[in-house]
Write a structure and sequence with these properties.
This protein is mostly helical and 127 residues long. The protein has helices at residues 3-11, 13-26, 28-41, 43-55, 59-68, 104-125, and strands spanning 88-91, 98-102.
Length: 127
């Protein structure tokens, strides 16, 4: 992109956004298919990027955590080899602190419990 193009884009940002959106929409299926194929061909690269972007950790740090937990979910103890998905990074949503690795089921359960903790406790007190 040359200097004139950069200036035009800077001075006409709304117009450029509309054009970019239109171009993206016209090629959306192609882009989505490409991204899916890329993730399939490069699982380690994809996992490395996701861990860094979402949790600020490297793939090596993730693997160290998995080794410390012996490849098992920190709650139910199921081994990753018996699961369909790899272990999820569990973290506190308010502080971002990583607590451990969980299977998908325990991760979802914990998320729902954190959101509905008060209601769950009230319900369980009923007799």
């Amino acid at each position: 992109m040359n200097k004139q193009q950069k200036e035009f884009r800077a001075n006409n940002s709304e117009l450029q956004k509309r054009k970019d959106r239109k171009q993206y929409q016209s090629q959306k299926k192609k882009r989505v298919a490409y991204a899916k194929e890329y993730r399939k061909k490069h699982p380690d690269r994809t996992k490395r990027t996701n861990l860094k972007v979402k949790y600020g950790i490297s793939l090596e740090e993730y693997n160290d955590m998995k080794e410390r937990q012996q490849g098992k979910c920190a709650i139910c103890g199921k081994h990753e080899d018996s699961l369909k998905k790899s272990l999820c990074v569990d973290h506190c949503h308010s502080t971002g602190v990583i607590r451990g690795l969980l299977c998908d089921t325990c991760n979802k359960f914990l998320g729902f419990y954190e959101k509905l903790k008060g209601q769950c406790e009230l319900y369980l007190r009923k007799e």
